[in-house]
Amino acid sequence: MKKSGRKEISDIKLAVFPGNPGNKYAMTRHNLAWLLLDNSSQYKNPVWQKKFKGVYSKEIFTQGCIALKPETFMNKTGESVRAAADFFKLKAENIIVCHDDIELEFGEASFKKGGGAAGHNGLRSVKQHLGTDSFYRFRLGVSRPSRGGVDSHVLGRFTKDEEAALPLFLDKASELLAKFISENSEALLKKNKQKLINF
Q1: Which residues are catalytic?
Q2: pLDDT tens digit sequence for 116-133
Q3: 3-class DSSP state for residue 16?
Q4: Which of 3, 50, 62, 167 has its CA at 20 to 30 Å from residue 148's CA atom?
Q5: Quick check: 140 and 165 in contact, CB under 8 A?
Q6: Which of 86, 96, 177 is nearest to 134 (CA)?
Q7: What is the CA radius of gyration of the chain?
Q8: How many CB atoms within 10 Å of residue 143?
Q9: Could you report the per-residue pLDDT of 135-187, keeping only the tens digit for each?
Q10: Residue of 111, 83, 80 whose CA lies nearest to 9
């Protein structure tokens, strides 16, 4: 643990970026975590290794945190996370899962520890395979659907306006995630949500 005057959280050693493989899902809201990892200007040319039903890299975060990109479908994310956690001997408290969240507006983000899956199949799978919900979450807003069902919304593409704003949203979100991992404190965890871009 880092020594400082502030209250600390458990060391984050594994950051998980779930998504659905295939071109069909590449630019959908449900793949926002993959987009964060693949398109942020902060993460350049990492070296990926194939393992844990996905790929992982030790070169994205300078703080010694491993990035894991499961290549299972979203609803089997937990299989990849459990394999990585067992291999690196990690507890749930050492893991943060980045994911899309309809309860936040597009351009908003927040951190959370524990809690329910709120209908998110990736979170449900991680909880099932770890046997606990005590991992951290980095929630990335995709807004609630204005019409239609939630499934078609999260599996649908961003609007043209959202796509135009997406690069800045991803950069701001990646900066915030790196800060959370590096500072290792509860200050960011206690904030309800942060508006990262004007949208």
Answers
A1: 30
A2: 887 898 999 999 999 999
A3: strand
A4: 167
A5: no
A6: 96
A7: 16
A8: 20
A9: 999 999 999 988 888 999 999 999 999 999 999 999 999 999 999 998 877 78
A10: 111
